[in-house]
Design a protein that fits this description.
Blueprint: E1 11-21, E2 24-28, E3 35-36, H1 43-50, H2 61-74, H3 78-92, E4 96-103, E5 117-118, E6 123-124, E7 131-136, E8 152-158, H4 167-180, E9 185-190, H5 195-204, E10 209-222, E11 228-233, E12 243-245, H6 246-255, E13 260-266, H7 269-275, E14 281-285, H8 291-306, H9 311-325, E15 335-339, H10 367-389, H11 397-424
Parallel strand pairs: 1-4, 4-7, 8-9, 8-10, 10-13, 13-14
Antiparallel strand pairs: 1-2, 2-3, 5-6, 10-11, 11-12, 14-15
Helix pairs in contact: 4-8, 6-7, 8-9, 10-11
């Protein structure tokens, strides 16, 4: 589901907080009591499940099992009732729901919140068309919303010390977007990025987005509380000056005015976590991710943002695109997104702005058309979710077929209404 900004947030909030006391972890929702939370998986167990990559859909069964266990541990009793009430409310109002996991505990960082699996609906929550899942550090959360941007100033850094990654393709995609949206994207590129080149650009210029295409590296250090140290690998002497420390990067991004860091590289989830202390939002990838999945991330994320989607819903659309393009790999759930603001509004819409290559240019200011497009996105996303359930769901095939037929009819109706609305506006 892609919801137009239209100058207002179209996503409501449901937050879950995890904090610690000694060796204990506590869980709460607004207005609810603190209850002790038992961490259900070790880091080794999660890594083993995420490392099981296969194009066979049967391979997602361990992920569903992990997600179901995590879901039941979070949403039992009163918390579950509160969630269902909010989901029903946003569905009635044709809005989205942001599920925010608020935690700064290193011992819970490894938990795969992105895998939350709703057994009653037979689907992963972060792949549904209605819900956006984000992580937030309480120590960096700022309740003051940012104004949307009229134009994205992007600094793209490519670094492939091994020469075997497809990092240049990220740059080509971004250049295509910059060419297509000349008034909306200002792109600066650093090829074969060195530490000195990155430091110079961030010191001398202001940017809104920092995009890194390359690889992260895990250093042999784990804190007493389970924290992992990751760095970005740049071009240079492998022993020292090619490593970009996450704190140093965070300070530079903050000083350069960066609002979003996209670390399109393996082993960067802990870097994204650190950057959340310094900038409003950050994306990283946990464990190893296939090159094709990184390319899908780049294409889908910026396509969604430039179409007018908020950051949280753009990330949801990106996870859906990764799952659709690379089924069975589980790479979609390795996308870790931190949002340190009350909403994900990012790029403002503008009259006459070129829409994505997959749909016609329709003015978002037309309320009737904007509403129809939101409905169409919801129905198509839900239809895709039903298709994912076939073959591995406890829901009966007959029930899925009925839901599919109903959604197909709704999609057909909405498309016809869009054509009629466009004709009334004299849109070719």
């Amino acid at each position: 589901m892609i919801i137009s900004n239209s100058g207002a947030d179209q996503v409501e909030e449901f937050s879950i907080s995890l904090d610690g006391g000694g060796e204990h972890t506590f869980l709460s929702v607004p207005g609810g009591p603190h209850t002790e939370f038992k961490i259900p998986f070790s880091r080794a167990e999660v890594e083993e499940a995420l490392g099981d990559c296969s194009p066979n859909r049967v391979s997602t069964d361990p992920l569903e099992s992990f997600g179901s266990t995590l879901f039941n541990s979070l949403f039992s009793g009163d918390r579950g009732r509160r969630l269902w009430e909010r989901l029903a409310e946003v569905e009635r109002n044709n809005r989205g729901l942001r599920l925010r996991i608020l935690s700064n505990l290193e011992r819970t960082q490894h938990l795969p919140w992105e895998l939350l699996f709703d057994p009653s609906r037979g689907d992963f929550m972060s792949l549904s068309g209605r819900l956006a899942l984000v992580r937030t550090r309480p120590d960096g959360f700022n309740t003051m919303p940012l104004e949307t941007l009229p134009c994205l100033r992007i600094l793209a850094v490519e670094a492939d010390p091994t020469g075997v990654m497809r990092t240049r393709e990220d740059l080509r995609m971004l250049q295509q977007f910059a060419n297509l949206y000349e008034s909306r994207v200002k792109l600066t590129v650093i090829e074969k990025g060195t530490l000195a080149a990155v430091e110079s650009q961030l010191r001398l210029h202001k940017y809104d987005v920092f995009h890194f295409a390359g690889s992260g590296e895990v250093l042999p250090y784990i804190s007493k509380r389970g924290g992992i140290r990751q760095v970005l690998r740049l071009i240079g002497d492998p022993s020292s000056d090619s490593l970009l420390d996450r704190q140093h990067l965070g300070e530079m991004l903050h000083n350069a005015g960066v609002r979003l860091a996209v670390l399109n590289a393996c082993h960067t989830d802990w870097i994204a976590r650190s950057l959340a202390k310094y900038i409003p939002s950050a994306i990283g990838l946990r464990e190893s991710v296939q090159d094709n999945s990184c390319l899908t991330l780049c294409d889908s994320l910026y396509r969604s943002i430039l179409a007018g989607s908020s950051l949280d819903l753009a990330v949801t659309a990106t996870r859906q695109a990764m799952d659709h393009a690379h089924p069975g790999t589980g790479d979609w759930c390795k996308l870790i997104f931190y949002l340190q603001k009350p909403n994900g509004l990012f790029l403002s819409t503008s009259t006459g702005a070129t829409e994505t290559a997959t749909r016609s240019a329709i003015p978002r200011e037309n309320k009737e058309i904007a509403k129809l497009m939101r409905l169409l996105d919801v129905y198509q996303s839900n239809l895709a979710a039903i298709e994912r359930r076939v073959g591995g769901s406890s829901v009966s095939v007959e029930s899925l077929r009925e839901q599919s037929n109903d959604l197909q009819l709704k999609v057909k109706t909405i498309k016809q209404q869009l054509v009629e609305a466009a004709n009334r506006e004299n849109i070719p």
